[in-house]
Amino acid sequence: MERIASYDPWDHDRAVDARHELPTGGADARARVRDLLRAHAVLPGQVKLADMLLVTSELVTNAIRHGGGLVRFEADLTEDGLVLVVADRSTEPPRVFRADDGRAVGGYGWPLTCRVAAEISIRPGPGGKTIRAVVSL
């Protein structure tokens, strides 16, 4: 299994070498997942590939936008599927944003991510949280 990038999510002072820089955004993270799949000759169907890329993009984008910044990104292939580990600096769990009348007005990606992923877990830690998601092959 190839690990794209691995960092101690709470070691913010650690120097990052150029080969293992964190993704700059959702598109960069999706490209890394595509590269991982190609490197291991894994050819998921179009729907499964779309699911993998959606979960990748949502987790990374939300860490950057709402989580105070991305501090860890891992993408691995296992027997269970694509395993994503994303950590940020916020202790707040992902949520759906609601208007005063109760209508959802944002946060649509989180329920979709939960529906698409075979497994998902959130681990709070000092200075942030880590989300682990598995999208089956």
Overview of this protein structure:
- It is a single chain.
- By secondary structure, the protein is α+β, with helices and mostly antiparallel strands.
- Helix 1 (26-39) packs antiparallel against helix 2 and helix 2 (46-65) crosses helix 3.
- The longest helix is centred in the middle third of the chain and has 20 residues, at 46-65.
- It is built from three helices and six strands, in the order H-H-E-E-E-E-H-E-E.
- The relative contact order is 0.20.
- The chain is globular, with a radius of gyration of 15 Å.
- Residues 1-19 have low confidence and may be disordered.
- The strands form two sheets. It has a four-stranded antiparallel beta sheet with strand order 1-2-6-5, with helices on one face. It has a two-stranded antiparallel sheet with strand order 3-4.
Task: Please summarize what this structure is.
The protein is of the alpha+beta class and 137 residues long. The chain has helices spanning 26-39, 46-65, 109-116; strands at residues 70-78, 81-88, 97-98, 104-106, 119-125, 128-135. It has 3 helices and 6 strands, in the order ααββββαββ.
Q: Helices and strands: which structural class?
A: alpha+beta
Note the beta-strand portion: 25-35%
Alpha-carbon distance between the termini? 15 Å
Helix content: 25-40%
* Rg computed from alpha carbons, rounded to a whole number of angstroms: 15 Å
Record the strand order, biggest sheet: 1-2-6-5
Quick check: average pLDDT? Answer: 84
Summed up, the helix count is: 3
Order of helices and strands: HHEEEEHEE
Total number of strands: 6
**Gross geometry:** globular
**For the report, how would you describe the main beta sheet?**
4 strands, antiparallel
Low-confidence stretches: 1-19
